[in-house]
Amino acid sequence: AACIGILMATLDSGMISVSLPTIMGHFQTGIETVQWVVLAYLLTITVTLLSFGRLADMIGRKMIYSVGVLIFAIGSALCGTAQSAELLIAYRVFEAVGASMIMANSMAIASAVFPPKERGMALGIIGTTVATGVTLGPSIGGVLTEGLGWQSVFFMNLPLGAIGVTMGLLV
Hints:
Helix content is 91%, strand content 0%. The protein is an all-alpha fold.
Protein backbone atom coordinates (compact mmCIF):
# COMPACT_ATOMS: atom_id res chain seq x y z
CA ALA A 1 0.00 0.00 0.00
CA ALA A 2 2.84 2.40 0.84
CA CYS A 3 4.47 1.73 -2.52
CA ILE A 4 1.46 2.93 -4.54
CA GLY A 5 1.79 6.50 -3.27
CA ILE A 6 5.56 6.52 -3.69
CA LEU A 7 5.24 5.18 -7.24
CA MET A 8 2.67 7.85 -8.06
CA ALA A 9 4.82 10.69 -6.72
CA THR A 10 8.05 9.55 -8.40
CA LEU A 11 6.42 8.76 -11.75
CA ASP A 12 4.82 12.20 -11.70
CA SER A 13 8.11 14.03 -11.36
CA GLY A 14 9.67 12.29 -14.34
CA MET A 15 6.58 12.53 -16.51
CA ILE A 16 6.27 16.28 -15.93
CA SER A 17 9.89 16.97 -16.79
CA VAL A 18 9.53 15.68 -20.35
CA SER A 19 6.18 17.46 -20.76
CA LEU A 20 7.53 20.94 -20.00
CA PRO A 21 8.24 21.95 -23.62
CA THR A 22 4.70 20.95 -24.61
CA ILE A 23 3.24 22.79 -21.61
CA MET A 24 5.31 25.85 -22.52
CA GLY A 25 3.91 25.81 -26.05
CA HIS A 26 0.35 25.17 -24.90
CA PHE A 27 0.32 28.15 -22.56
CA GLN A 28 2.50 30.29 -24.85
CA THR A 29 4.89 31.09 -22.03
CA GLY A 30 8.63 31.04 -21.55
CA ILE A 31 10.93 28.76 -19.64
CA GLU A 32 11.14 31.31 -16.81
CA THR A 33 7.47 30.61 -16.05
CA VAL A 34 7.14 26.93 -16.86
CA GLN A 35 10.18 25.99 -14.76
CA TRP A 36 8.02 26.83 -11.73
CA VAL A 37 5.84 23.81 -12.53
CA VAL A 38 8.74 21.70 -11.25
CA LEU A 39 10.28 24.15 -8.77
CA ALA A 40 7.05 24.91 -6.90
CA TYR A 41 6.46 21.17 -6.47
CA LEU A 42 9.97 20.51 -5.13
CA LEU A 43 10.03 23.56 -2.87
CA THR A 44 6.67 22.68 -1.35
CA ILE A 45 7.80 19.14 -0.57
CA THR A 46 11.04 20.42 0.92
CA VAL A 47 9.28 22.94 3.16
CA THR A 48 6.51 20.61 4.40
CA LEU A 49 8.16 17.18 4.66
CA LEU A 50 9.33 17.36 8.27
CA SER A 51 6.07 18.89 9.47
CA PHE A 52 4.00 16.10 7.96
CA GLY A 53 6.30 13.51 9.47
CA ARG A 54 5.83 15.06 12.89
CA LEU A 55 2.08 15.44 12.40
CA ALA A 56 1.86 11.77 11.47
CA ASP A 57 3.73 10.86 14.67
CA MET A 58 1.09 12.78 16.61
CA ILE A 59 -2.17 11.76 14.89
CA GLY A 60 -1.31 8.63 12.94
CA ARG A 61 0.68 7.68 9.88
CA LYS A 62 -2.16 5.85 8.16
CA MET A 63 -4.41 8.91 8.22
CA ILE A 64 -1.75 11.32 6.97
CA TYR A 65 -0.65 8.88 4.26
CA SER A 66 -4.21 8.24 3.02
CA VAL A 67 -5.12 11.93 3.05
CA GLY A 68 -1.86 12.63 1.22
CA VAL A 69 -2.72 10.18 -1.56
CA LEU A 70 -6.17 11.75 -1.86
CA ILE A 71 -4.75 15.30 -1.98
CA PHE A 72 -2.18 14.21 -4.55
CA ALA A 73 -4.87 12.65 -6.76
CA ILE A 74 -7.13 15.72 -6.49
CA GLY A 75 -4.14 17.96 -7.22
CA SER A 76 -3.31 15.86 -10.28
CA ALA A 77 -6.87 16.21 -11.57
CA LEU A 78 -6.70 19.98 -11.04
CA CYS A 79 -3.34 20.17 -12.83
CA GLY A 80 -4.79 18.32 -15.81
CA THR A 81 -7.59 20.89 -16.09
CA ALA A 82 -5.45 24.01 -15.55
CA GLN A 83 -6.35 26.86 -17.89
CA SER A 84 -3.15 28.86 -17.40
CA ALA A 85 0.47 28.33 -16.44
CA GLU A 86 -0.13 30.20 -13.19
CA LEU A 87 -3.03 27.91 -12.25
CA LEU A 88 -0.93 24.88 -13.13
CA ILE A 89 1.80 26.10 -10.79
CA ALA A 90 -0.72 26.71 -7.99
CA TYR A 91 -2.22 23.24 -8.48
CA ARG A 92 1.27 21.73 -8.43
CA VAL A 93 1.78 23.27 -4.98
CA PHE A 94 -1.46 21.62 -3.84
CA GLU A 95 -0.37 18.32 -5.41
CA ALA A 96 3.02 18.60 -3.67
CA VAL A 97 1.36 18.88 -0.26
CA GLY A 98 -0.08 15.42 -0.89
CA ALA A 99 3.26 14.13 -2.16
CA SER A 100 4.95 15.40 0.98
CA MET A 101 2.41 13.61 3.18
CA ILE A 102 3.09 10.39 1.23
CA MET A 103 6.88 10.70 1.29
CA ALA A 104 7.02 11.62 4.97
CA ASN A 105 5.19 8.44 5.91
CA SER A 106 5.89 5.59 3.50
CA MET A 107 9.16 4.45 5.04
CA ALA A 108 7.92 5.17 8.55
CA ILE A 109 4.89 2.95 7.93
CA ALA A 110 7.06 0.15 6.57
CA SER A 111 9.43 0.47 9.53
CA ALA A 112 6.55 0.34 12.00
CA VAL A 113 4.63 -2.60 10.57
CA PHE A 114 7.42 -4.99 9.60
CA PRO A 115 9.36 -6.90 12.24
CA PRO A 116 13.11 -6.24 12.40
CA LYS A 117 13.96 -9.35 10.36
CA GLU A 118 11.75 -8.22 7.46
CA ARG A 119 12.26 -4.47 7.75
CA GLY A 120 15.25 -4.32 5.42
CA MET A 121 13.30 -6.15 2.73
CA ALA A 122 10.31 -3.81 3.12
CA LEU A 123 12.49 -0.69 2.91
CA GLY A 124 14.30 -2.22 -0.07
CA ILE A 125 10.97 -2.70 -1.85
CA ILE A 126 10.11 0.96 -1.24
CA GLY A 127 13.55 1.97 -2.52
CA THR A 128 13.03 -0.17 -5.61
CA THR A 129 9.65 1.49 -6.13
CA VAL A 130 11.30 4.92 -6.01
CA ALA A 131 13.90 3.83 -8.56
CA THR A 132 11.22 2.31 -10.79
CA GLY A 133 9.14 5.50 -10.74
CA VAL A 134 12.14 7.72 -11.45
CA THR A 135 13.28 5.43 -14.27
CA LEU A 136 9.91 4.91 -15.96
CA GLY A 137 8.53 8.43 -15.49
CA PRO A 138 10.25 10.13 -18.43
CA SER A 139 9.43 7.31 -20.88
CA ILE A 140 5.79 7.08 -19.83
CA GLY A 141 5.53 10.87 -19.79
CA GLY A 142 6.92 11.10 -23.32
CA VAL A 143 4.51 8.50 -24.67
CA LEU A 144 1.51 10.07 -22.92
CA THR A 145 2.43 13.63 -23.91
CA GLU A 146 2.94 12.70 -27.55
CA GLY A 147 -0.13 10.49 -27.79
CA LEU A 148 -2.69 12.15 -25.52
CA GLY A 149 -1.36 15.59 -24.61
CA TRP A 150 0.39 16.98 -21.54
CA GLN A 151 -2.78 16.77 -19.44
CA SER A 152 -2.68 12.95 -19.59
CA VAL A 153 0.44 12.81 -17.42
CA PHE A 154 -1.65 14.21 -14.59
CA PHE A 155 -4.76 12.14 -15.28
CA MET A 156 -2.65 8.97 -15.13
CA ASN A 157 -2.39 9.53 -11.38
CA LEU A 158 -6.13 9.20 -10.83
CA PRO A 159 -6.44 5.39 -11.00
CA LEU A 160 -3.26 5.01 -8.95
CA GLY A 161 -4.66 7.47 -6.41
CA ALA A 162 -7.92 5.54 -6.14
CA ILE A 163 -6.01 2.31 -5.53
CA GLY A 164 -3.69 4.04 -3.05
CA VAL A 165 -6.49 5.59 -0.99
CA THR A 166 -8.46 2.34 -0.93
CA MET A 167 -5.44 0.26 0.09
CA GLY A 168 -4.33 2.87 2.61
CA LEU A 169 -7.69 2.77 4.35
CA LEU A 170 -8.15 -1.00 4.19
CA VAL A 171 -4.68 -2.15 5.21
